[in-house]
Amino acid sequence: MTALQPVRGTRDLIGEEFRRHHAVVEAARRASALYGFEEWATPIFEDTGVFARGLGDSSDVVMKEMYTFTDRGGDSVTLRPEMTAGVCRALVSNGLTQSNLPRKVFYAGPMFRYERPQKGRYRQFHQIGIEVLGAAEPLADAEVIACGWDILVALGVSDGTVLEINTLGDAESRDAYRAALVAYFGVHRDALSHDSQLRLEKNPLRILDSKDEGDRAIVADAPVIGAHLTEAAAGFYAAVKAHLVRFGVPFRENPRIVRGLDYYSHTAFEFVTDRLGAQGTVMAGGRYNGLVEEMGGPPTPSVGWAAGIERLSMLLPAAPAAPRPVAVIPVGDAAEGPALDVLQALRRAGVVAEIAYRGNLKRRMERANRIGARAAVILGDEEIAAGVAQLRDLDAGTQEKVPLPEVPGRLA
């Protein structure tokens, strides 16, 4: 029988890989908590309409990448390809749109997209992210970015990572910019890829994000939005940049960063690195002032970002070390009961402790070395009678007798 393997585009997180993954999530959880974010968890699958509305019917994710199926009740459901839409749906579904705004949300979990697996990208992948729901001020944009920067610093991956920012302006700015893009790309229509020709009709901003080499050559000379900003939009962008300076977050402006959907506005940003080859974006986000409305709620200006855990874990300078346990070793059958008492006393004191299920002293010591134990607590008939344990430092090779009540304190 052929051994079963993980489905293409998925993988197991075991040992060092899991420790890297866990380190990213925990660093993000701690940093976001300092900014007042609370953690939410939404379902892994949603009504397909949540993502069709949230990502746009013409987006590549909706058209090509979503895992969508009809369940046994005849409903169309989709494994979540991202989480922002689900968070906005949760805000509306739980009746939270009218009280205690803004809501500051942190999340972490698996997402699903059917695309070609490549370095740092899988069909089941994982993200962390934050959203500020119900804040229209530029300070919210800057604080969201600053929190992301603090996470990168905490992980030790900020060196070689650069924040790039742009503005998408307000609705009036975008309308003027869209018209300029239509005029420009219309002249080059025949040279555009088939996908970008379709985008020209539906959403020309998305041409700016095309990966087609021919498109990118044309995009290089396309208009930028700066010349089309209203006074209010320019002021908003200036305020975001001023706040970032105050927060001590370095950045550079990149007028090619865009978001194609109409409800995105003002700030768009990406943290990018040159340490992952072509897949250089490790965190990306922006302001979206219409997504909660798409979910059936009232106008709710919001801003946030998402980051791929796989990519961030690849950037970690080293995998976090596994905790080194203490091995509790009974010598003889009569010692097993007292050894279990010591084992649980160690665990209650916060000490990682293990006991081998079988074997003589030699075999149990061999196992202690295999699991990387830092110390061994050895109990035999003589030790039990004297109320002590032999405490062996497995790094230094030293050994001493320690009264049983003192063992947890010596190893904590």
How helical, in percent, are the residues? 25-40%
Shape assignment: elongated
What count of helical segments does DSSP give? 15
Q: Could you tell me the strand content as a percent range?
A: 15-25%
Distance between the termini: 48 Å
| Poorly predicted spans | none
Mean pLDDT: 92
Number of E-state strands: 16
For the biggest β-sheet, the strand order reads 1-5-6-11-10-9-7-8
Question: Helix- and strand-based class?
Answer: alpha+beta
The quaternary organization reads as: single chain
Q: Indicate the radius of gyration in whole angstroms.
A: 28 Å
What is the makeup of the main sheet? 8 strands, mixed
Structural features, described:
By secondary structure, this protein is α+β, with helices and mostly antiparallel strands. The chain is built from 15 helices and 16 strands. It has helices spanning 16-34, 48-55, 60-65, 84-93, 138-155, 171-187, 194-202, 213-219, 231-247, 291-294, 309-315, 336-348, 361-370, 381-386, 407-411, and strands at 38-39, 45-47, 68-70, 76-79, 103-112, 124-133, 161-167, 252-253, 264-273, 281-288, 302-308, 326-330, 353-355, 375-379, 388-393, 399-403. The strands form three sheets. An eight-stranded mixed β-sheet has the order 1-5-6-11-10-9-7-8. It has a five-stranded mixed β-sheet with strand order 13-12-14-15-16, with helices on both faces. A three-stranded antiparallel β-sheet has the order 2-4-3. α12 links the parallel β12 (326-330) and β13. α1 (16-34) packs across α11, α2 (48-55) packs across α4 and α5 runs parallel beside α9. The longest helix is centred in the N-terminal third of the chain and has 19 residues, at 16-34. The chain starts with 15 loop residues before the first helix and ends with a helix.
